[in-house]
Amino acid sequence: MTRCDALIVGGGPSGSTCAWLLRRAGWNVIVADRARFPRDKVCAGWLTPDVFRLLELEPQEYRATGATLQDISGFRTGLIGAPLIDTHYSHVVSYAIRRREFDAFLLHRSQAQLFEDTAVHTIRPSGKGWVVNDEIETPLLIGAGGHFCPVAKYLRGAGDTEIPVVAKEAEFTLNPDQTHTVSRVPELFFCRDMEGYAWSVRKGDYLNVGIGRRGNAGFARHVADFMAFLERRQTLTPGSLARWHGHAYMAWGAGARPLLSNGVLVIGDAAGLAYPESGEGIKPAIESGRRAAETLIAADGRVDVEALQPYADALRRLHPPIARHSRPVQAALAAAGRVLLRSPMFTRHVVLDRWFLRAVEGT
Fold first, then answer.
1. N or C terminus of the chain: which is more exposed, having fewer CB within 10 Å?
2. 13-24 and 99-110 are packed helices; what angle lies between their axes, rounded to 10 degrees?
3. Apex CA 44: angle with CA 343 and CA 143, to 5°?
4. Residue 57: inside a domain, yes or no?
5. Is the residue at 134 inside a domain?
């Protein structure tokens, strides 16, 4: 039996950040992940300067590793198929990264003991905490395995009651012609019902395209329409061999899933923390990993609910539950949104600054 102070299930940004801070404090940490890193992780993948501050990492330090890091100082936005509004900034407001590189960098920086190619099949309580896969014993179990995290599933004991965001996306190498024609500025294309949006994000010689929507009703049709749109723009060629991947996540604020119990807590997408307006989950994942580690270090070895509660309280302040609207109200908001998306001022100060870049204090 292998023993540790904390077992983190999931080696993405939330798990690796939590592991890094716990290891720095002297904890014996194991990170278990069903994949082997670097692993394919398709994601629009942009980081604001705030993310680098949370990681105590300089952008140029990350770029010096040879990883992709493309400066972003503007966006193009609008409804799918409608004219786009160009928004430019006088400084870098974000950075495009490839998750395959970024996640591997953070995980190996953590210096945790890695159990790669390790899916979690069993979780059972023991006299000393938890036993996972009849192989690892730990007093503390941290779920960081994304939307389908087995620790989150064990903690809630039943299926989700909230509707997830579903997404489908692809990331591929641009051909020589596309490197000169595909925009270097991220493009955001909103659905007419305002229940989702699509994107095209350049990352050096790679392009990430995708679409996400709240709920899966009619999702296949929206994906097909978006692919046809990309073909008309010659972003994709008919019959393209780009491999599309699907995933899901919660974006309702903290409380959509249980966050903790005695000797167990969940972070990142396992806790359902993506921002409701944009679906962006990297900053909430890293921030929750930090908050969890800081709470655990301050608890000085205690892992009971009372000791872990400051973590849940902090997340509820950062990610308050969002309001639900009736269908008539949703339809009225969508109509207003279609009009407002034609406004350069609204696009810059609300859509981009407040919702996507989180540049407004308190967002």
1. N
2. 20
3. 120
4. no
5. yes
Which residue in 162, 205, 169 sits closest to 184, CA to CA? Answer: 205
Give me the DSSP letters along 107-135: HHHHT-EEE-S-----EEEETTEEEETTT
Rg, Å, the chain Cα set = 21
Q: Sign of the C-alpha dihedral, residues 190, 191, 195, 197?
A: negative
For residues 202 and 75, what is the distance between their CA atoms, to the nearest angstrom?
Answer: 11
Domain residue limits at 114? 2-45+98-162+251-318
Distance of alpha carbon 159 from alpha carbon 149, whole angstroms: 12
Asked if residue 261 is part of any domain, the answer here is yes
- In angstroms, the first-to-last Cα distance of the chain is 45
Residue 290 inside a domain? The answer is yes
352 CB-side CA count, 13 A: 26
Residue with tokens 């023991």: 126
Question: At 146, which amino acid appears?
Answer: G
CATH number at residue 304: 3.50.50.60
Q: Which of 196, 198, 223, 174 is nearest to 70 (CA)?
A: 174
Query: Any idea what the Cα angle at residue 98 is, between residues 92 and 101, rounded to 5°?
Result: 120
Query: Which positions ≥6 away from 105 have C-beta within 8 Å?
Result: 62, 65, 67
Cα separation, 299 vs 190, in Å, equals 44
3-state helix, strand, coil in the chain (%, to 5): 35, 25, 40
Per-residue pLDDT reduced to its tens digit, 66-116: 999 999 999 999 999 999 999 999 999 999 999 999 999 999 999 999 999
pTM for this predicted structure:
0.94
Distance, in Å, from the CA atom of 92 to the CA atom of 359, rounded to the nearest integer, reads 12
Question: Edge-to-edge, what's the strand order for the sheet holding 129-132?
Answer: 2-3, 136-138, 129-132, 123-126
| Total tally of structural domains belonging to the chain | 1
Residues 6+ apart with CB under 8 A from 265: 142, 143, 259, 292, 308, 311, 312
pLDDT tens, residue by residue, 121-180? 999 999 889 999 999 999 999 999 999 999 999 999 877 778 899 999 999 888 877 777
